[in-house]
Design goal:
alpha/beta, TIM Barrel, globular, binds NADP nicotinamide-adenine-dinucleotide phosphate
């Protein structure tokens, strides 16, 4: 019986690990998993045991432990059989470059430099394989320290298993500035390549190192570079191997078409605001028609924005979402993220809290019914939280809306 069980286990892709009586259970599992499958593991033991002995040391009789992507299957003799299980982040979209982009990533905007390192650690150790960055978030150097410490062979995640995005800021659209800006992000992030580099916004600001060049009346000083000129140099970055894919952020459908009409390398991704109050169905359909994957930013409604309006609707407190959350035994955030990934949209929730970082990845163990997906779709009110604003005379007023390349004057 044991032989057939072992053969069955092997045929299911199990890994056999022999015990080492000279090591503690934790040391032993860590070292043999590292040896066998190249994983540096964090061991999570859950369960109640009656101290059944595994050779000389206690282990729960029915285990319930998961080690990154390994799950305990059986103990036979002095060996454990571990099954490779599907990792949450193995759910991905395939880009037009062939790259796999994990459906959930960690957002890093508003993540202070002194907290972002912990956030990255907490994300990587539980299986995040996708981090969304940008030069203008002013924290890429801290993220780079985290990458140096936790990314690489023998570390929490191998570089080739991590998907890192960064973005070209509005003051760097001039063709002569693009490569230097990309190299600065690479240097700060301590990486040799980016998986994806996006033009952050279609409209340019005045060139220079001040990310928000201002007039005396506090309005922004704009630039007039055509984003198609910027795109040509973005293509060069791919050819030089500095980035694997290039894409757009905050472009509308007309601007996407405009870039495609002049592109030798088509954009792989559009990153835009998207959540149940801004479902973006037309824009998503447009992107899919042209081979772009869509990433939803502010998928939880960005409640920690500094220009938040006290009267704005709070997505995380939506009664319909709350009802679905109670029904599934999940949080409202998980319902909204599940809705996105279930319709094939990548989502990049930001959190600095270890519990919420973990929660936001746990959206692959339940399914919303077709009716529930539709209910969430009907919550749309074309509500944009991310209309950039500036403070003039003590009041927040919309910024950029007069710029000819401002994207949100078109219907989608
Ligand atoms: N391309 C662009 O122009 C653009 C624009 C905006 C954002 N983005 C990207 O998208 C990312 C996400 O967007 P966002 O930061 O605007 O907002 P978001 O992810 O919609 O919301 C973040 C807020 O939600 C809270 N939160 C996180 N998980 C939660 C949970 N499970 N339950 C309850 N609250 C939760 C966070 O608080 P805690 O941190 O305290 O958990 C934070 O206050 C950004 O960080 C950035 O990487 C890109």
């Amino acid at each position: 019986m044991w032989t057939s069980l072992i053969l069955c286990a092997m045929s299911l892709g199990m890994v056999k690990v022999e015990e080492d009586p000279n090591k503690s259970v934790g040391q032993w599992l860590r070292s043999c998993l590292k040896e066998q499958v190249g994983l540096k593991v964090t061991l999570i033991l859950v369960g109640r045991g009656n101290n059944t002995s595994l050779v000389n040391r206690p282990l729960p009789p029915w285990i319930c432990f998961e080690i990154l992507n390994m799950r305990y299957f059986a103990k036979i003799g002095n060996a454990l059989y571990l099954q490779m299980v599907k990792m949450a982040t193995s759910d991905y979209v395939v880009l037009n470059t062939g790259q796999k982009m994990p459906l959930i990533g960690l957002g890093t905007w508003k993540n202070p430099p002194d907290e972002v390192k912990d956030a990255i650690y907490n994300a990587l150790k539980i299986g995040y394989h996708h981090i969304d960055c940008a030069a203008v978030y002013n924290n890429e150097a801290s993220i780079g320290e985290a990458f140096k410490q936790y990314v690489g062979a023998d570390k929490l995640v191998r570089r080739e298993d991590l998907f890192v995005t960064s973005k070209l800021w509005n003051t760097k659209h001039h063709p002569e500035d693009v490569e230097a800006a990309c190299c600065k992000s690479l240097e700060d992030l301590q990486l040799t390549y980016l998986d994806l580099y996006l033009i952050h916004w279609p409209h340019a600001f005045e060139r220079g190192d001040n990310p928000f060049p201002k007039n005396p009346d506090e309005t922004v000083r704009y630039g007039s570079i055509d984003y198609k000129e910027t795109w040509k140099v973005m293509e060069e970055l791919v050819r030089k191997g500095l980035v694997k894919a290039i894409g757009l952020s905050n472009f509308n459908s007309r601007q996407i078409d405009d870039v495609i009409s002049a592109a030798a390398i088509k954009p792989a991704v559009l990153q835009v605001e998207c959540h149940p109050y801004l479902v973006q169905n037309e824009l998503i359909a447009h992107c899919r028609k042209h081979g772009l994957a869509v990433t939803a930013y502010s998928p939880l409604g960005s409640p920690d924005r500094f220009w938040k309006d006290p009267d704005e609707p709070l997505l995380l407190q939506d009664a319909n979402i709350k009802t679905l959350a109670d029904k599934h035994g999940k949080s409202p955030a998980q319902i909204m993220l599940r809705w996105q990934v279930q319709r094939g949209v990548v989502a990049i929730p930001k959190s600095v809290n270890a519990g919420r970082i973990a929660q936001n990845l746990q959206v692959f163990d339940f399914t919303l019914t077709e009716d529930e997906m539709k209910i969430i779709g009907t919550l749309n009110r074309n509500w944009r939280y991310l209309v950039p604003k500036i403070k003039i005379g003590g009041k927040f007023v919309p910024r950029d809306a007069e710029h000819p390349d401002y994207p949100f004057n078109d219907p989608y």
